[in-house]
Amino acid sequence: MTNNKSRGNADEQTPLINGESGSSAHTGNHIQRQPRNGVFVFFFDNKHTPGNDSSSIAIRSAAYTWHVTKVTLLSNYVNFLLVMVPIGIAAGALGWNSTAVFTINFFAIIPLAAVLSFATEEISIKLGETLGGLLNATFGNAVELIVSIVALKDGQIEVVQSSMLGSILSNLLLVMGMCFFFGGLVHRGRNGAGTEQAFSGAVAQTTCSLMTLSSASLVIPAALYAVLSQNEDEDKGKSILILSRGTAIILLLLYVLYLVFQLRTHSNLFDTEAQEAAEDAEGDENAEEASMGPVAAAIVLVVVTVLVALCAEYLVGSIDDIVEKANISKAFIGLILIPIVGNAAEHVTAVVVALRDKMDLAMGVAIGSSIQIALGVTPFLVIVGWIIGQPMSLRFETFETVAFAVSVLVVTYTVQDGKSNYLEGAMLLGLYIIIAVAFYATPSNAFDKTALLLGAP
């Protein structure tokens, strides 16, 4: 979704540029017009690149390679930050200052996330609705997954858990709050006769029920740990890991069931008449043809995934020094900063479609991504930790668990009527800021999960 909109923006600009060239040609001569049009087509037309129809294999291959590169670069406005990628990798490899390494790689991952989403969308166009939806569900949070696996391998369990919680809260509170707030302001109606934006209440209720279930999956391990701590049970870490791994398997099965429910048996609930009408009016061209072939998109996907892994390696490696020098808790880095990296492009898309009064699409981005993290990515990381010998569990700190449970409760009450306004958006944003300030005020050594989990005194 993000990339269709991004490609749409590029397409809307390209004809304007070409149109200006054409109109100026009426006042000039033919010799001046041709080179200008050719330059714009070569660099800015993401539908055609000169040389693609050449009889020479070498020219055709070079032209198609440039076409794929050009389409990828024009896919999103944030791609100008791609210059940070080689700088960030060099900074990490050459051992620059930890603050510089963290900051540069932080900004490098933002456009890589957008390109990753774009390549996924390109492949989805060729696969059809069901398989495409499954692919989007799988790769929708690929950046968070890669960063978390790197951090988990490095033993940064606190960062992994905080980033998972942060991704969920940023979608539920920040993104949804911005959608409700800005969309509500634009579509507020007249003074004294205000209007509200509407979305599918059935979908919102179903997804909020799943979020409540995921909240329970965190509350139960936290409660069990508290009980075992009171009884001074020395094997409490082992008990928590057994519970977490069993719960993770159940949550993954429920996530698969949710995908079947969403994409196959009850897909009608997730495709409202308004959404179908919008897709028929605006998405026909995108549905019929992609900007690049599936093989090229797959190559882009692989290359970008490798680059994300490299940048994530250096970003995670600099966290300890950042915490020590700036006295910022790992919980704040994971909860607030890392989710911004992976979700920036999706956040912008959700707000844009909310401004256009397409609230079902906006809700799909916000709640859908939260479901993926809560029922898919987080349990998967528990299993990965089990495999590689890291004590990753579903026992979050009590403070984090309470913040998550309260957020789910507030969101459920907010969306259950299927309507939204700017006041509800302001409430969600306010709660997100309160939680962010709370974690920022938390001392860097307040959470020491590893010692507690292993039963250390």
Oligomer: single chain
Say how many strands there are. 4
Q: Separation of termini?
A: 49 Å
Instruction: Using the alpha-carbon principal axes, give the shape.
Output: globular
- Characterize the biggest β-sheet: 2 strands, antiparallel
Mean pLDDT comes to: 76
Radius of gyration (CA) equals 24 Å
Number of helical segments with 4 or more residues: 20
* Global structural class: mainly alpha
Secondary-structure element pattern, one letter each: HHHHHHHHEEEHHHHHHHHHHEHH
Beta-strand fraction estimate: under 5%
Low-confidence stretches: 1-36, 273-288, 449-457
Strand arrangement, major sheet: 1-2
Q: Considering DSSP H and I runs of 4 or more, what fraction of the residues is helical? A: over 70%
Structure in words:
This protein has about 450 residues and is mainly alpha-helical. The protein contains 20 helices and 4 strands. Strand 1 and strand 2 (about 195) form a beta hairpin. Residues about 1-35, about 275-290 and about 450-455 have low confidence and may be disordered. This is Vacuolar calcium ion transporter. One of its GO terms (cellular component) is endomembrane system.
